[in-house]
């Protein structure tokens, strides 16, 4: 029956079973059977096919959110920079429109609101729409009450500005909650966002990695249709190459994972400016610093030694040329020997290609050579979480936090 459940989940939400791990789907199915008091696989299969309510309950048992406030902080810095420019271009004709999906328990859309308020935007100057397939997590977002796990990193000053402490955690303030319009809906349903005006910014991070290729492109077709011609699309680190393959242009600032529609360059005798790479080595999760100007990516160094060989790998990965980047990784290992950074990039490139088992192996090789390699810890944790190993992911996240903090202390000395 589990194979049938996998097919049902693919039809309902486009889920590729291998992306979360079949054990996660089997465990969720058994949980639902126990909750209903159903012992027979055949009886449960009949029930889940007949009941849309049970289908939703099964989806919610499978989809376990893993998120926190200001995840990928550079993307929020980029959002503010772009939003200020977009606001000036609109000349007050309408509020900015931002879409966050899947919004999970609300950390991302509320982070968007806090970033814009910190930048001086009036509450009426923008509106955030937030969508998730799980009614349970949408209700948690509406309640706006969070425990310590939602606050990660060292700079938590935003918590003092926008949350009220309670006996069991922190309650997001009404002025933040009121700027987010939450709804439960399935992105695979064409009616969910049908008729919406275009969005200036679309956040769709770490969703596409759970879909097969046809579903990824169907979702991207729908989201690109919702994106304003001058809008910006934010994705997760492992999804950047999908946007590049569809002809979208990277923003050109490190760690933003932001893309815009490519604009044809005007005819000119002088060569077109080179687009700076946007996909460089991901950093561990940190909370948002005060808004600062974006810095251009560093230029690629000529290939002449180990450091420049690694720089070439980064540049190729940034350009979406994954096969070439992997070949350069292999050449690096032959010429310079084992390297934690190189194994990390081999892991990330395989991760981006949906080769989870290979990616996991390379991340572990990197950690064998350098146990506190922060980027490998962070990405291996994300991979384990996506596969349902939340205890393993939590241990790696704790290691990454300790390693990151130790690095900061060494730098301060």
Automatic annotation (TrEMBL):
Name the Gene3D superfamilies for this protein: Tetratricopeptide repeat domain, Vaccinia Virus protein VP39
Q: Which Pfam families match?
A: CheR
Do the record's keywords include Methyltransferase?
Answer: yes
Task: Give the SMART domains listed for this entry.
Answer: MeTrc
Q: Which residues form the CheR-type methyltransferase domain?
A: 1-240
User: Where on the tree of life does the source sit, at the highest rank?
Assistant: Bacteria
Enumerate the UniProt keywords alphabetically. Answer: Methyltransferase, S-adenosyl-L-methionine, TPR repeat, Transferase
Which ranges does the UniProt record give for the TPR repeats?
A: 340-373
Gene Ontology biological-process entries: methylation
Q: Which GO terms describe its molecular function?
A: S-adenosylmethionine-dependent methyltransferase activity
The chain's coiled-coil residues are none
- The protein's name in its UniProt record: Chemotaxis protein methyltransferase WspC
